[in-house]
Amino acid sequence: MSTPTQRLAELGLTLPPVAKPLAAYTPAITVGNQVWVSGQLPLRDGKLVATGRLGDAVEPAEGAEAAKVAALNALAAVADQAGGLDNVARILKAVVFVASTTDFTAQPQVANGASELLGEVFGTPHVRSAVGVAVLPIDAPVEVELVAELAAR
Q1: Endoribonuclease L-PSP/chorismate mutase-like domain spans which residues (predicted)?
Q2: How do strand 47-48 and strand 43-44 relate by DSSP bridges?
Q3: Hey, where are the domains in the chain?
C-alpha cells in the first residue's frame, strides 16, 4: 500500500511551503492527535490562482481547481505540524468557503476540488461543509480549513 506522499507524487504534485499568515494567526496547531488548520487560500508562489466570486468572475471549474490548490496548501500546514504527510492517518473534516454571488448554488461542486484531492491522497472519506460567502481575504474565490488525525506513533 502506498503512502500519502507517494500518492501525492503519483498525482504529479508536491507540497508547497507553508503559506505565511496574512494576519494574527498561526497556520496550524496540534491538539492531542489532531491537527487543526487555519483557512488556506489558493496561493501558488505567493499569488492567487484566481480572484473574484463564483457566479461572476470565476467559473465553477476554475473554482474547483482553486479549491484543490487551497487544499494542497492546507496539507502543507498539516504536514508541517505532523512531521511529514506520512504521519497523518486521515483527514477528518474539510470546510470550504466559496466566495459567490447570491444566485450561485454550486458550492458543493466547487468544494469537490478539495475533497477529491484529499480522497486521492488519503484514500479515506472525510466530512465536509461547503459554505457560500460574500467575499474572502484578498479577493480569493475559495478558502479551505482542515482537521486531520495523526497516525499512531
Answers
A1: 7-150
A2: antiparallel
A3: 4-12+29-150
For the segment(s) 4-12+29-150, the CATH number from 3.30.1330.40, 3.40.50.300, 3.30.930.10, 3.90.1170.10 is 3.30.1330.40
User: Residue 28: its pLDDT value, please?
Assistant: 98
For 16-33, write each residue's pLDDT tens digit: 999 999 899 999 999 999
Per-residue burial over 82-111, b if 16 or more Cβ lie within 10 Å, else e, is beebebbbbbbebbbbbbbeeebebbebbb
The three grid cell numbers given for residue 137, joined into one nine-digit string: 481575504
Question: Taking residues 92-114, what's their average pLDDT?
Answer: 98
Using the CB atoms, write b or e for 37-53: b if 16+ within 10 Å. Answer: bbbbbbbeeeebbbbbb
62-85: average pLDDT: 98
Q: Residue 105 pLDDT more than 80?
A: yes
d(CA 129, CA 131): 6
